[in-house]
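Components:
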Amino acid sequence: MILYDYVLSADCYAVRLLAALTGQRLETRAVDFYPGAAEKGAAFRAINPAGTLPVLVDGEVTLAEPAAILMYLATGTSFAAEGASAQEWLARSRHFAAALGGARQHDMLEVPGDIDALRAEGSLWLRILEAALFEAGEEGCGFLLGDTPTIADIAIFPHVALAPDGGVELGAWPRIRLWMRRLRALPGFIEMPGIHRLHDLKPEPGPDYGGAAA
Amino acid sequence: MSVSWTPVALTPDLPPGGAVPVRAPWGELVVWRSATGRLSCFPERCPHRGMRLSHGFVRGEMISCIYHGWRYDTAGQCRKIPAHPDLEPPAAIRVHSYPVAEAGGLIWIAKTLPESAPPETGAEPLRSLVIASPASAVTEAAGVVPGVPGPVSLPDLAAPLILALQDMGEETAVHALITPADSAARIAASRALEAFRRAVEAEEIAA
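Structure:
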């Protein structure tokens, strides 16, 4: 499977993360999204006429919508989720991307936008997520759709974790913080710039740390 | 006001190994809980390069800065500087440690140690949320003042909730507690709190 990828994209990271969590191998092809806007060029539009990332190509299958890619990769794994509640969160992930992701692109990648409106919209979706995680917790569930993580969580998580890049701080969201901690503690979790692993779960670096290879 | 306790979180929202940023009247702080459950409260910024300590991580009884790994014990003393593994950090490398206490299902901080302990609430933690209105507006709507937990009756709820307000300037954190209730009642209380927030904020916009 080939993933056309940009390392700082939240949606591309969601795909890489799900592949890692489910033990699937991706061949990533870096696309110069910033500053080159290569995804809008003729060469890339031959792969995805919409000119967007991520794009997954698996033999005859080409998928360019983040939720569809997650659904494809999750098939047959514990991360698969079906039904209206799953669809609700997958659709909501586009609102998180537009608002929190829009604020982040404004602040980090010089993309024009009404930054105050983007942050306000992002905070609204964080409120909805915080309330949903509270209610899930009351039902004994640590994740959006149950007691194990699914593509619903993976679709939302990157946009939330990167919200501070767009000036939306996460201090005031206790259930979201604990949910992110659970996700970051999953076996096989991988990082991206801005989303680091839980160092406290890793062994302490020894005295030869960084020098052993020399 | 600085000699009284300020509620900053509900106890279950900061489990062992956690670190959270806190906006106090006197500055930005980090409150963290060690592996054995000890709470500490420091200024948010690592004195080395100013990185937020709430972005750091807790290992055992110490918090590490995410930037260069400077590690502080529960009293604020720097115990390790990874770039100089053989160095015993001098006593002068330390951060200020503020009083922090746990009572009534809440975590409390203070700038200087108050004469009395923080109050009990006789209730169980429900959830915390932030209202995008100043504490004066929340007090007017709820009838409780910051720092003093009190009962507040919300529409459609059988029993009042206990609300502890935290003044954060333009915003107000509301730490809500409830007398023991089943999950359906707790979810109903959470939804009533959301409605309360919308009502307070709508009033603020109209004013």
